[in-house]
Amino acid sequence: MSKETYHYLFGPVPSRRLGRSLGVDIVPFKTCTQNCIYCQLGKDTPQAIERKEYVPIDAVLDELKRKIAEGLETDVITISGSGEPTLNSGLGKLLDSIKQLTDVPVVVITNGTLLSRDDVRADCAKADIVMPSLDAGDPQTFETMNHPHPDIDYDTYVEGLCRFRQEFKGSYWLEVFFCEGVNTDPESIRKIKEQILRIRPDKVQLNTSVRPITHPDAARVSPEKLNQIAQQWGNSTEVIADFSKHIETGAFTSGQAEILDMLRRRPCSADDICDGLGLNRNIAQKLIQQLLNTAKIVAEEKKQTIYYKIR
Ligand code: SF4
To answer: Are residues 258 and 240 in the same domain?
Structure first.
């Protein structure tokens, strides 16, 4: 009998920063206010800015109740996934309801661009840990690095990060993602640090992509350089570069291995993969795309269905 599929949950999976993490995905694949040059979810996708219930929160909660009834063992519940979770207008309701269901701490991973909005800050304040991002110390680098929606203004965004710090009582961890040649010259590093001093997060976490980046301008930064920046910035800064942005979870590598195992036995469609591994559809799509990008699998159409097989 095949496992009942989860559409919005994935894991729990090991995460270096958070322990075992149950992922909750509340926006459709690559629904985001930005289009970062290092994004692993695809490039040249249009940015979203409207807050709405992109996926029904009641359906997410039904899955969560089912997961808890099955005996959930996790250190945290992480709202993140395949885009920008604060775009979902039901985020506050979701966080309130999770708090009624369980004592497990809840984390929101966000790019932080909507924290200038009162409603988004009020929603995020219900979490235990909030992990926003800041990759640029000035508007030009922000534009180059993150390609934000045209309605997002750099100063307003940083102001939002500062205001949230003043209001939020939980843990506030800021992630800075570096791409060599884009935000790694001494002046860019100095400007980012200047903004961090204004924002005053509890921790600063430095990241770079450990996987191939498709964008020609986004080269990864060496571990030596990240360590150097961490030392320069002081005690509350750490390097977390084993994990790439918003693909926080070892899940994606272990998920890839499981898919490859399955495909070694026979070619499968995306539906077969979701059903066979009990995977969230967005995550399965993401994993399949990564395996295609790295040429580990190939796609073949048969009777109007796409099948994937080992290359
Ligand atoms: S890396 Fe994150 S914030 Fe940037 S475009 Fe991708 S999903 Fe959005």
So the answer is: no
